[in-house]
Amino acid sequence: MRHLITQFAEQKNCLIGIADPNPIPGVRERLEQTETPFAPKPPMRKLSPADYLPDVKSVIVLGASYAPPCAEVSSIIARPGEPYTGLISSMALSPDYHRTVRALLIELAGLISAPHYKILVDSGGPVEREWAVKAGLGFWGKNCCVISPSNKGSFFNIGLLLTDLALPASQPGDMDGCGTCTRCLEACPGKALEPFRLNYKNCVSYITQKNGELSAEEQRIMGKQIYFCDICQRVCPYNEGVAPEQVKVSLTGLMNMTEDTFGQTCVYTAMNWKGFKILKRNAATVFNTIYKWG
C-alpha cells in the first residue's frame, strides 16, 4: 500500500505523507495567533479527524505544487511594454486548488481502495498545515507557511484524505528549518509577520480579499499586489529555483472588465470566491496609488 502511495506522488509530482489521527497538541492556541475572518473562530472549529470520519485510522496529507496560470486568464496578463501593471499571486491565477487537490485525493482514494474515507481541502476544520508538518511534508516557516526542504519550497497547496486504513506514519518535519533567517519578516510590506505568528490585518493577502473601502495605510501596504501575495515566500531561500514565475497583469484590462468577462476569465480560479467588485476595486487602488498619484 505504501508503495502505491509513493508511486502516485512521483507520478503526480506531489508531496505525500501519512500521519496517525491523534489530535495535534496546541493547535487551538496557535490558531488564536493566526486566525483570519475567512475561517471559523478557533473555539468553533472541529479539529480532530474523528469528527469527520469516526473510524479514521490514518491521515494522508497531499501537497500539490501551484499549477501554471489557466488559459482563461490570458486576457488579463500584461503584454510586453504595457505601462500600467499589477501583480497577482501565482495561486490566484492557477485553476482553483479546491478542485484540483480534491480531484487528486479522489483519485488516490480509488487507487488504494479506501473502504471509507473523507476528503478535506480548506474545510475550516482540521488545519491542513499542522497535519502537513506532522506527516513530514515539511517544517513550519517563520512566515507561517509549510516549507519542504527537499525540492518543493512552500509553493504548494494541501489537502487531507482521512481513511479507515491503518497505514504506517511518516516522520514529522524538522521544527527548526529556518534557523536564524528572517528574510520573510523583513520583506513583508505590512510587517504582519513575527516568527511563526501573523497579524492578518496587516497582511497583503487579507487586505486584497477584505470587503469595503480600504484605508490609506492598507492601500500603501498593498503596493502592486492585486490579489493574494507571494512576497514572504519569494524571498525564502528554500524557494530559490522553485518559485513560479512572477506574473504581471494589465490594470487597464482589469479596470475595464465587465462582470460577464470576469465570469469567463476567473470562474475556474480562486479569485472567483471574492468576486468581481473586489478585483476591480483592487486594480483601481493599485493604479491610483502607484501610477496616478505615485
Task: Provide structural commentary.
- There is one protein chain.
- This protein is α+β, with helices and mostly antiparallel strands and 294 residues long.
- The chain has two domains: 2-67 and 95-163, no CATH class; 71-91 and 180-292, no CATH class.
- It contains twelve helices and eleven strands.
- Strands 1-2-7-4 form a four-stranded antiparallel beta sheet, with helices on both faces. Strands 10-3-11 form a three-stranded mixed beta sheet.
- The longest helix has 17 residues, at 276-292.
In short:
The chain is an alpha+beta fold and 294 residues long. The chain has helices at 2-12, 27-34, 90-93, 97-111, 128-134, 183-187, 204-207, 216-222, 231-234, 251-255, 259-266, 276-292; strands at residues 14-19, 58-65, 85-88, 117-120, 139-140, 146-147, 156-163, 193-194, 197-198, 225-227, 248-250. The chain has two domains: 2-67 and 95-163, no CATH class; 71-91 and 180-292, no CATH class.
